[in-house]
Amino acid sequence: MNDLTNKQKVTIMIAIMTAMFFSAINQTIIGVAMPRIIAKLGGMDYYTWVITIYLLTMAVATILVGKLSDIYGRKPFLLAGIGFFMVGALLSGFSQDIFQLIIFRGITGIGGGMIMSTAFTAVGDLYLPRERAKWTGAMSGIFGIASVLGPLMGGFIVDNLDWRWVFWIFLPLGILAFAMIFKLFPKVPRREGETIDYFGSFFLTVTIVALLMAFSLAGEGAGKYSWDSWQIIGLFGLTVVALIAFMITETKVKTPVLPLSLFKNDIVTVSNIAGFLLGMGMMGVMIYAPFFIQGVKGISPSGSGYIMMPMSIVMVFATTFAGAFMTKTGKYKGLAIVGLSITALGIFLLSFITIDTPIYIMISYLCIVGLGLGASMPVFSLTVQNAVSLRQLGVASASSQLFRSLGNTMGIGILGAVMSSKMVSGMKAAFSSGDMDASTKLPPEHAKQVGELMNPEILLDQPRLEQLQNSLPVEIQSVADQLVVTVKDVFANALTTAFFWGGVIMVIAIIFAIFLRVIPLVSAGDKMATMQKVEKKSE
């Protein structure tokens, strides 16, 4: 694509960012809406699977498409990704229960993986690393803008419309994105001499699926298995066997789906590990902050969107600054360390909030997290692309997206297991301390109603909670109120424990970022100067 004019490149980038915004807004719009959707469909014990299945299918699609797009070009996979995403979003709105929603979100994840893998790689096709930094920051800013608009619209929809419109409202934007990519994105010829690594793709898929399922299924609650159960041990065993088979396969095929030589480059390895840990830690905020706002503080989904909005706005400004800073200076390591440190600080501060913490304090902590995420998120994709040749750009970019997706999914599994374990122990402690004794001495006709208040799921549906409390006789209102406060305290303690371990994960990410080796970001000016030097020497 070197023969394209700057105007053509900018036009193509607008089309790419439209596709990315379509994908991103469909993710952020459901964040604050999911607690209410779960309250309507039921199945809080399977809540994480709605997110996990998306990340799982996204991870598989990301890495497989990364290599295929190196062979066939980015355009067909961008178009296919938008198509899968639209079908998945459409079907998600027709879900009748939690299990249908999980399946349809899996289809959506396939599209999301295709879009993200090819979109970030396409920037590498169009621009050299120094100029790439500006666009990488702008693309990360797309997520920030989506993070501002999504929660507001998601909260408004579930408060005022049928929740299904959360999935349907932006489908016209998908059609527009498809049309723009189809018309504007250039088609490139198939790269000769390349073959598809079917066996490697199969073993890699099994490795990823088995690993993510192990972390998703482990824990306590319905549909979960203990960490030492044969099911979880078997999945980890399958992961190891499939990984060994994959590594053997990659040493023997002509064009491996994920070349192991890629990880001999220490910059790629360290960047991917740091991105993996960043993905794990940030899930503690993105997933569980709306739970705290709605379940513990008792704020509506739309109100939750307003509370999350300042963090997203700060993130937009931070990503824009990060891209401009890297473009101007060519430096990135200090930015990564500072960004991760700020993120860790914000998450640790969130681990100290309680049911009595003022909302403005929580907003300030979320803004700190947004500042850190905005500064650090654009860095690691750029460092991976800057460290490899143009021939490996697609698969290297896909590896970066893969590790971040793996981090997201494993973060949900690990932090979710921490939260569930803390919830169980907290409820047991509340019973043993006598906090819930009064609820066990109620007349049978009221015991069932009050018993519903002991399910944390009721905290996520405030209209239902108020209706239930108001339907109880006046003489047992105090018992119900005490029970709700106790459950909120347990819920808050479980969520803040998850925040704490999210902060610990971010500290580990900082340690890896310290060891990130720095190589200069090449600009168009640098390339021109090098060419002029070569020409002078040849004269």
Automatic annotation (TrEMBL):
It is a multi-pass membrane protein. Residues 12-521 form the Major facilitator superfamily (MFS) profile domain. Its main location: membrane. The keyword Transmembrane applies. It comes from the Bacteria. CDD domains: MFS_Azr1_MDR_like. It is found in: Cell membrane. Keywords: Membrane, Transmembrane, Transmembrane helix, Transport. SUPFAM superfamilies: MFS general substrate transporter. The keyword Transmembrane applies. The chain crosses the membrane at residues 12-34, 46-65, 77-96, 102-123, 135-153, 165-186, 198-218, 230-249, 270-293, 305-327, 334-353, 359-384, 405-424, 498-519. Pfam families: MFS_1. InterPro entries: MFS, MFS_dom, MFS_trans_sf, Sugar_transporter_CS. This is MFS transporter.
